[in-house]
Amino acid sequence: xxxxxxxxxxxxxxxxxxxxxxxxxxxxxxxxxxxxxxxxxxxxxxxxxxxxxxxxxxxxxxxxxxxxxxxxxxxxxxxxxxxxxxxxxxxxxxxxxxxxxxxxxxxxxxxxxxxxxxxxxxxxxxxxxxxxxxxxxxxxxxxxxxxxxxxxxxxxxxxxxxxxxxxxxxxxxxxxxxxxxxxxxxxxxxxxxxxxxxxxxxxxxxxxxxxxxxxxxxxxxxxxxxxxxxxxxxxxxxxxxxxxxxxxxxxxxxxxxxxxxxxxxxxxxxxxxxxxxxxxxxxxxxxxxxxxxxxxxxxxx
Length: 301
Hints:
By secondary structure, this protein is an alpha+beta fold. The chain contains eight helices and ten strands. It is 38% helix and 19% strand. It has a five-stranded antiparallel β-sheet. The chain is elongated.
């Protein structure tokens, strides 16, 4: 028989080992035990993995959209990972009548963009007609939601602004990693988007009857609010895409010479913008806007 003293010693060693393992786990994975997968609810009713994915959207550079009765415009701020790199693509053409602007993980955005393109091609092949914008957005939202209910998957870390034109006119939708989608008159997502939203909320009543030039000018003015006082929008770090009803919804990205005309009319910044409440977390993770070392390998756009 094992002496009682040895038994006590053995039990003590086992308890010490468990305590040490618990401490190592807490150091490695944090004190929160409810964020190891996307199917575990925390005691206060949250799924933390989904919130982390939505936070990845806030770490990306901003993208915004505005729409009138005849046109929808997307504008984005493009970041270069270094002085030797080209600026990241933020607006992707899906079909002749549809495009998306992204904020978050670029790799995840490419996967969703490819899916949307295939759905548009299949719909045009079967029905000989362009795909309804709202229907495709619902499918993307469903696809995003399925990633949140399987422990072997993870949510997409990207938010989309989907601009399109169909028989009902221009549309602007937002999708997020949780699987929620909404339609907007104007919307901004990504880092530092709070300042753009403030501008859009102040002027959105005039968007419905605005002509194309006024709509584009509003878009670049709102985008200008997301940058610091010493950061200027240029034809290299800014992209603007247009979809209109009158021209059959044909996708058009403004070339540099046309874009410069709108950038030259921007309101001058006299003092630093103090309204960018979300600037700090975004800039901390996203890195410098022009040059410098950017995040790798999980590239955000």
